[in-house]
Design a protein that fits this description.
Layout: H1 2-13, H2 22-26, H3 36-52
C-alpha cells in the first residue's frame, strides 16, 4: 500500500513543492510494531479537523 501512497502523493504534488526522497525520508510506514496508539491518534486528529470544517 505504501507504494500506492507514494505514487498518488507524487501525482498530487505535481512538482509544486520539493519533498525529500519519499521512500525513506518523508512518507513511510511506522517503525514501531503494533503502534495502535498512533492510528487512534491519527483518527482523533482527523475527526477534530472534520468537525471544525462543519
Amino acid at each position: 500500500m505504501i507504494e500506492r501512497v507514494h505514487k498518488e502523493f507524487t501525482k498530487l504534488m505535481a512538482g509544486y513543492v520539493h519533498v525529500p526522497y519519499l521512500l525513506t525520508d518523508y512518507i513511510m510506514t511506522p517503525s514501531v510494531a503494533n503502534n495502535d496508539s498512533a492510528t487512534v491518534g491519527n483518527f482523533a486528529l482527523a475527526k477534530e479537523l472534520d468537525e471544525k470544517n462543519y
